[in-house]
Design goal:
The chain is an alpha/beta fold. It has one domain (2-118): 3-Layer(bba) Sandwich (FAD/NAD(P)-binding domain). The chain is 28% helix and 29% strand. The chain is built from 3 helices and 7 strands, in the order H-E-H-E-H-E-E-E-E-E. It has helices at 2-10, 22-33, 54-66, and strands at 14-18, 37-42, 70-73, 77-83, 86-91, 96-99, 101-104. The strands form 2 sheets. Strands 3-2-1-7 form a 4-stranded parallel sheet, with helices on one face. It has a 3-stranded antiparallel sheet with strand order 4-5-6, with no helix packed on it. The longest helix is centred in the middle third of the chain and has 13 residues, at 54-66. The chain is globular and about 50 Å long. One of its GO terms (cellular component) is cytoplasm.
Length: 123
């Protein structure tokens, strides 16, 4: 995945990053340093506010914007259509973003259901 992403980023264009967490922030930073236009989309009004808090999440918003990143926070993604190099990202607020590359960094949920009967405390 990372080799293909590297090729796409080096080709330039507009990158849409779905997810404003740590992975999304790293990809965004790298893409901006390579000169790409970047838009970050996250359904939370303040990214990373579930992991950190709204104040620290706000710092990330300010940092992105100071570096020329467009942000669409508070809007989810309904669909990604098109083919590599010519993509459209439809948001829940009706906005459609054009992109040459889309990266989805929305985290993971651990599959710990099988541990419930183990007697271990799961927090």
């Amino acid at each position: 995945d990372c080799l293909r992403l590297r090729e796409d980023l080096l080709a330039g264009g507009h990158l849409v990053v779905i997810g404003g967490g740590f992975i999304g922030a790293e990809v965004t930073s790298t893409a901006r340093s390579l000169g790409l236009e970047v838009t970050v989309v996250d359904p939370l009004p303040v990214p990373m506010s579930r992991v950190l808090n709204t104040e620290i999440g706000g710092w990330f918003v300010d940092l992105h914007r100071r570096h020329g990143v467009r942000t669409r926070f508070g809007a989810g993604v309904e669909a990604v259509d098109g083919e590599s190099g010519d993509l459209r990202v439809s948001l829940t607020d009706g906005t459609v973003l054009e992109a040459s590359t889309v990266v989805v960094g929305i985290g993971a949920v651990p599959n710990d259901g099988w541990l419930k009967s183990s007697g271990l405390v799961i927090d």
